[in-house]
User: What shape does this take?
Amino acid sequence: MTPRPNVLAAAGLDRLGLIRKDRAEVLDRLGGPGAVVVPVRGQQVAVAGTPPALVAVDALEVDDAWLLGECADDGRCFFAVDLDGDGAPDVTLPPDARWSGLREVAAILPALDAHVLATATGLSQWHRTHRFCGACGEPTTADWAGHRRLCGGCGREHFPRTDPAVIVAVVHGDRVLLGRNPAWPAGFASVLAGFVEPGESLEDAVAREVLEEAGVAVTDVRYESSQPWPFPSSVMLGFRATAASDELDPDPEELVDAAWYSREELREGAVAMPPPVSIARRLLDDWLDEAP
Assistant: This one.
């Protein structure tokens, strides 16, 4: 079976981590013919056209731009700039540009574009939540092409962080467990997920989350795949697990609905499943593909 595309994955982008500290090298890339500067605004991205494509703006001062990486195929070097907040540079967008959430456009963008925008929005969230030092409270400033913030008070270095979260397709026989969070609309359901706690292995996190949320013990926890999930700053680590029993005891604060679904029920639309951009949908589609 042909592997299903992993939406938001790297798609051939060299992140150029070794040149971020070299201001002259970054400036040379920013001024070069392959530079592509994409604007973001918090968790929104600028796109244009039908189908949507990346909007690029004119090159900026090096201190305004975050280096994202270089495409190995065509030499384009991607940067991002945040147009929201104090001190944002003055940038003119094309007339047909529009702001859209990454959730809405990621699945229909080319794979490289989707990954570039996932990286840009993840950095945007980190910059806006780390403007002050967590140790002394003094303001921080960005350098290393957007990949470090330095405290002007105590000199502490701050680097982008990603929160690991596990997400799991729990199966029992020929059925899969889906639940609905209280914040989700009626008729929608997804696989279970949760954040990894300090001192916890990924497999232990899977077992704990499923037991806490649905009251189900699991065995045979197996890693499947991962996906960056910059909403705002996570990486989703996908698993498959086997339920020891099909008896459910959901926590009402976590799940207002929880049930087992057959492949036939999901194919016939018994519930609205997660969107194609999500690893939740990838886990479900992989399970659905295993039987006719």
About this structure: The two ends are 13 Å apart (CA to CA). The chain is about 20% helix and 30% strand.
